[in-house]
Amino acid sequence: MDLLLTTGTSASPSAATGGQTSPVTLVALYPGPALRLDPALAIAEANAEAEDMMDSDPRWLPDLRSWLSASSVAPGLRSVPVESLRGIMIVEWAGVPLPDGGFLLLGRDDTLERQLRHTLTESRRRYKDLVEVSSDFAWETGPDGTFVFVSHKGALGYPADALIGRDPRSLALEEAEDLPMPFDSRRPVDQTELWLKGADGTPACVVASALPLFGQQGDWIGARGVCRDVTEQVLRSNELARIRNRERLLGHIVHTLRDRLDAAEALAVAATETARALSADGCRIYRAEEGTGGGGQGGGRVALSLVAEFGAELPDVGAALLDRIANGEGLVADRLGDIQLIGERTEYRQAVNGALLVWRAGDSEPWDDDDRQLMSGVADHIGIAHAHLAYQERLRRLSERDGLTGLFNRRTFFERLEESISRPDSGPSALLYVDLDNFKAVNDLHGHQQGDTVLKAIGTLLTTGVRPGDLPGRLGGDEFVLWLGRTDEAKARIVAERLLKGMRELAHLSASPEKPLGLSIGIAVHTPGRGESVRELTDRADAAMYDAKKSGKGHYALAPAYQAVPEMSSSDVSAAEPAP
């Protein structure tokens, strides 16, 4: 603070003083707060600003007096807080000793400047702290492109001292050495991702932001920036992307299995989608044969049968490999000639119910961890699908089959018979209506348990030797039917003879020699195109069965050929009506 005054005692300015300003005049004219204290440090003169300060907060003056009284020479500068209407202000006072032993005090509002200095200091400290605690590392390169500054923590496993003077390009991966880098960039760089080489040689992904530095002549003199190591985030993101991709593929396969009503079609589509999801040349889905063990649960070995496949032809894998897959644990990898394959068993509630097998050509990429994890996920869902389909099949069998004999029940038999005779190209076929002879005596003498044994034996007899298109059924009680597709009268007679012969082998189940078990069979041959309905066909076969009973039981009878009933005209109907 420059003071334009002398230590003279003149009370007023004049030309005679040579332009010197007296303390009294200076106090009055000073733009800030000013005071003149006498030798006893009492206020001898004060300008308006100083008086306002004393009115607002008189506590600052004793502090100044203590300061002045303790000074043996020129006191210099002193800052004191003053409470004003604007809040706390910091006033810096300059104390000047006067010849009479008093002091001239000139004040300056130092509040804003102090705040600015404090803010700048805090900002620098804050920046320093943030740089030190941040996972980012700050750096600066010089005109030669080498590091001239690296934050004290260092970077990429290197200490800061090991990087100073080093060319940043020596940190680049070999395949990226010629790519642009932020360390020598001539333009601003914002959030650029690049891969560098850590101190241990492992790749590290960093996100860099940088600003180029230019000299007064516009020449490039380096760059300054920060890098953030995001290797873990990138790896996690890549893993998450792989997981999401697996979930998407699995979801697609699951929807395929769930949305297809036909079991064989669902598994065929699942085999196709599994091969595509794994970039495989082919896929096979096996299912555990009914009655084989559960594998690993104390049961017997699991026997597999192929239920769906897709892709290139696969040589015979052999029973040994399938046995390893179904009865072992975990994923099985093997080679078959020039083919590499992996297989895994499918389970439901810890019971093996099938296997999944995929393969690639030998010169393809080997199976990696992603392939194996996706394979395991698919196998889990195929296992669930096998269990779901088995449950559906059980429900369908329960709804379609007679619970005791396993034959088609009445409803299902007639539905399928309707479908069969409605096909115009079905050719001649035959319906056999079968009724047990002397069955009531078995129940009366030996009980219903023995009767059930007889009915089961009849069910076995009717299903033995039947072709895929034939329909054996139980209508209820001791009445059975057998539909023989594409069968003429001669073949129907042969089947009837076979049934009668088979029944004679069940004579030991009869109630007594006087009441031997037997069959009465009625045969009705159906010829397509004549308009015969299922009801009419059944009635003809039923009538023929009663004819067989009348002939002494244990026989068969042939129903007369179907004769269509001519439609009556309106005049015939009128003539047939009784007269009123």
UniProtKB/TrEMBL annotation:
Pfam hit, one: GGDEF
Every GGDEF domain range: 427-561
GO molecular function: catalytic activity
Domain PAC: 190-242
InterPro entries noted in UniProt: Biofilm_reg_signaling (IPR052155), GAF-like_dom_sf (IPR029016), GGDEF_dom (IPR000160), Nucleotide_cyclase (IPR029787), PAS (IPR000014), PAS-assoc_C (IPR000700), PAS-like_dom_sf (IPR035965), PAS_4 (IPR013656)
SUPFAM superfamilies to which the protein is assigned, alphabetical: GAF domain-like, Nucleotide cyclase, PYP-like sensor domain (PAS domain)
Domain of life where this protein originates: Bacteria
Record protein name field: Sensor domain-containing diguanylate cyclase
Organism listed in the record: Azospirillum humicireducens
Lineage of the species this protein comes from: Bacteria, Pseudomonadati, Pseudomonadota, Alphaproteobacteria, Rhodospirillales
